[in-house]
Amino acid sequence: MTSVPSPKTIHVFGSLNMDLVCRTPRLPQSGETVLGTDFATLPGGKGANQAVAAARLGVATTMVGRVGNDAFGRQLVQELQGAGVDTSGVTTAADGPTGVAAIAVDEVGHNTIVVVPGANGGVGDEEVKRLTDGLGPGDLVLLQFEVPLPTVMAAAQAAHAQGATVIVDPAPAHDHLPPEFFKTVNILTPNQTEASQLTGLAVSDVATAQAAAGQLVRRGVAVAIVKLGEQGAVVADGGGSFHQPPLPVKAIDTVAAGDAFNGGLAVALAEGRALKEAVAFANAVAAASVMVSGAQASMPTRSRVAALQMGLKHL
């Protein structure tokens, strides 16, 4: 009898924020004040969101990051633990607040976000060591740019050197990344805005996303996935590219949809799925997430993703 290998562990290295969410009929223009309809404090941060996404889908997940010694920090850690995330890699800053994100969401689910890093800005060598000490053979590492970029690059280099699959969500985007960074990244997952900033191309549709993804691969990334929201995703590697079509769902709130995608992608790869199948699964996870309000609250269970996929198959 052939044994089935157990899934690898997913290690998320990045930010933990408390999201301060305002709902409003429309997003304000520069200098404009609009009247909101609702306000909530919700656990977030791209790192924590991706950790919850992966853990809720049933794969062993650890979080490495930093919070402040305050009520927001304690709540964020408790929420991660409640989702099944191992938080032994989360440190508490001696001074400085927990990071926050001020988010405005309009009635069709579009959003604007302002992030104040707080304790996330102190993530450094201590956290990189915690990450690398916990890596096992073939594990996956999820990174984002909401902690200091030099630390992200150090984590990517260290994880890559130990044979981990390094998946980077380059948000918020940086215009100029050193060439050597791309060579430490197995999978880069910008959205169309970030892909535009990284490549200098105006990414707006499938064709321009293919051009941007191809450029990123030529820079040294093994796989580039450009997330196009309502247009699906474009995937490129050394062998070519393909378009993953969107799923026809009604979006209520697109906050953290990209984080849901990355968490789903890591889960599928940890389970040994091929890239095309993994991207399709990640697309379904993201689609399920936009049907629910909130960041971590929107991260779906595997059963909800399966129900969505089954429902679509019978349309």
Sum this structure up briefly:
The protein has 315 residues and is α/β, with parallel strands linked by helices.
Can you tag this structure with a few keywords?
globular; UDP-N-acetylmuramoyl-L-alanine:D-glutamate ligase; 4-stranded mixed β-sheet; 9-stranded mixed β-sheet; 13 strands; alpha/beta; 315 residues
Description:
The protein is α/β, with parallel strands linked by helices. The chain has one domain (10-15, 45-98, 120-313): UDP-N-acetylmuramoyl-L-alanine:D-glutamate ligase. The protein has helices at 46-56, 71-82, 125-133, 149-161, 179-182, 192-199, 206-218, 257-270, 275-289, 302-313; strands at 10-13, 17-23, 38-44, 61-67, 86-92, 99-105, 111-116, 140-144, 165-169, 187-188, 223-227, 233-237, 240-244. The strands form 2 sheets. Strands 5-4-1-8-9-10-11-12-13 form a 9-stranded mixed sheet, sandwiched between helices. Strand 11 (223-227) and strand 12 form a beta hairpin. The model has no long low-confidence stretch (mean pLDDT 93).
Task: Give the spatial strand order of the biggest sheet.
Answer: 5-4-1-8-9-10-11-12-13
Number of helices: 10
Relative helix content = 25-40%
Distance between the termini: 39 Å
Report the count of strand segments.
13
The biggest sheet, with number of strands, parallel, antiparallel or mixed sense and barrel status, is: 9 strands, mixed
Regarding quaternary structure, how should these chains be classified? single chain
Residues in β-strands, percent: 15-25%
CATH class: Alpha Beta
Mean of residue pLDDT values: 93
Rg measurement, Å: 18 Å
The topology string of helices and strands comes to EEEHEHEEEHEHEHEHHEEEHHH
